[in-house]
Amino acid sequence: xxxxxTMPIFSPDRHAHxxxxxxxxxxxxAGGTYRPLANDEDSNACAPSALSGxxxxxxxxxxxxxHAISDNTSIFISxxxxxxxxxxxxSSGSVSKAEIDNNEQIASSELQPHQPAEQPLNQVISVCKRxxxxxxxxxxxxxxxxxxxxxxTGHAIHVAVTAVKTAWHTFTNFKAVQLIxxxxxxxxxxxxxxxxxxxAFYAIVFTLLTSAEVIFLQWGVYxxxxxxxxxxxxxxxxxxxxxxxxxxxFVSQMWLEQKYQFLLNFIGIGLIYLALVFVLxxxxxxxxxxxxxxxxxxxxxxxxxxxxxxxxxxxxLSFVSNGNGGSLLSFIPKDQQALVNGAITVLIxxxxxxxxLFVLDGRRRFIHCSxxxxxxxxxxxxxxxxxxxAAILSIVLLVSYTWNLNIPGxxxxxxxxxxGYKPVPWNTYxxxxxNGPATTFQSLxxxxxxxxxxxxxxxxxxxxxxxxxxxANKINTSRANILTDSTVILILSxxxxxxxxxxxxxxxxxxxxxxxxxxxxTTSGLMLSPGYGGGTANIExxxxxxxxxxxxxxxxxxxxQQLVPSQKNVYTFNQIWNDACQAQCSYAFxxxxxxxxxxxxxxxxFGFKYFRTIDSKPALKxxxxxxxxxxxxASAYQNVxxxxxxxxxxxxxxxxxxxxxxxxxxxxxxNNEFKEADTSTGLDENEEVQIDxxxxxxxxxxxxxATFLDQLNMIEQPITVIFYGDHLPGIxxxxxxxKENQLTLHESDYFIWSNSSSSSAGSKLSPExxxxxxxxxxxxxxxxxxxxxxxxxxxxxTEVHQSVPAAGRFASTDADWGTxxxxxxxxxxxLIKKKNLSSEAKQLLEDYRxxxxxxxxxxxxxxxNWFNRVP
Length: 871
Hints:
A hairpin with a 5-residue loop joins β12 and β13. The chain is of the alpha/beta class.
């Protein structure tokens, strides 16, 4: 039996020419068994049970390819182990010649231990095959799962859609719904053919709305007149001088006086309306936008005229563009809230009416056009071309009109003057009243800082540089100190002034006893301010640069917004300290928003190391408020004290603009003793409340300033403070009615003081040198107060200040004073006519004008001559 077991089971090559059929049988032999080859899904063993799913003919036979070499018909499996599964055999159900050979090799390797080198390789191959099989199986399972999930989701969606359709059909089958559907089906035809509004109707709406906006804008310029008690004013005069009477006259003067300012404003804003219509090509949408924008402009203009005696200017738009629009709303006084609410209500109804007309109007496009098929037919070609051309021409016409409105000889300027336009750019309040706020606004869109002087050249500026370098050397021979050896703190105290100097205002309590006493012992006086109720940034610009607004063209209203952004290099006095320390030794603080008047970007050009505000990063450390007011002056001062303590004794320049006394002046102080102490006469209730609140704020500033100066006295380093109020608040309506009070309402208080560690402590310039000044002269006066050496530019300012103590561009009551836009004061505070100035003073003013042109609009020749550094 053992011998027979070693014999072949079948004869090879019995039928070499036909496919061989292999019979697989189980035949026990000693030491092992013969097993049929079958498909086995188990990776560890080939179980015979796996063959149960196949046909009987496939269980015991295997069809092989035609071959001439004999094949083994079975595999002997040793009793000592099992044969590893062959994936190919298990999966396909057939065994090829190569597979049988491979199987024989595996079995042989188990039976022949003398061939160990082949066994690891075969095992690796087997493992790889099993891994591939497992991966394929996993992917197949995942695919089946994804397909199944997709089918389930699709079925769910189908069920949901079917449910919605069923519900919709159920709803639409109701008789009431069917009646509604039938009604709209019948109405759709006539609705689709609804009438298109005519262009004549559009023209009527255009004319009426534009006229209404012009009248509304002009109405916001005027204020109701106030009459002295017991004055005899007839009823007709009262009507004519009322807001309604003045507005009516503005319109009717076209026929009565042949003055066409109303028509000029109509053209100005009508071009805006027209551009919106042609650009949007939707008449009613353009109407809503135009009406809302013009109404909002009119409300804002009315509020600003009441607060600052100034209309909305193009430079004011920077507040909105810098994200401060919301903050501007906080300046709205309570007595103007009704106007705002009324305007909002009107706009809501107006918008609803335009929306209704938009729905009823069958004309969707003002000009027919087709952007999708512009050249499909002649109508589309003409319509689309006309629509594009109209939009372009309307924009060009609007820009050209606005751009040339303040240029003599230009077409729009000629048109405007023929209609009665007489510009008063140095007094925007009067300009808006006489020419209309829309025309005033558009005339200030394009601004040229200064006209080039005929004598301006490099040679001329070199002569000026030499002249004032010599003057600086002359001044410096008698001065002992260096300007940058001391720290200078320049404080602009918002709206600070003595209310007791205003005619008709009196209190039983002095609102500023400490500063009043201080002014008696240090350099001090009154500053001629170009602003009343506003214009902070202009006075600030003058004090930092030494330039005077009177030298600029009248159209330049706000240098911070109209000039500085376009300048590459801007000279400011803080740069003297930067040069001395060979770094940035100047710092700025303002307890409000950083972007107002573009301070954030402008201060970077000025060379300040950093600018701290309530919204800067990092923000001001101290931001305490008094009741419902702005950040207090005491908190603002404490931020400066912290900066001084961090300086390690190094001299620096510090700029501080306070906020405490900024408008509005509502009754927000809880304990205001000035209500009882007010002994003023002739004030209405609203004016009295504002003045009492303002006086209390001045009292807080007075106390905080005294404490601040005491703290500076404790610091062992020389410090000089330049303190000034930028302008008076626009709350003195009674005093402002009289022209003789105009100069008084443009004079604020200032002082220059040095601490006990300074060699100039206790210094006080003579009254002739200090009683009257302008903010552009402050640094020159501070150098004189400190007995400090000066630069050639400061030498010029010193000489000009001695000849013309104060100069400012503000509306004068008399056309003979200055040029109508600039007023000059002598050392006693009296107005000087320009023609009465000495030849020396005139030459100094001319040199001053040339220097200002060179440094702001010219080629900067003086920068090449070290004009702004100490010789």
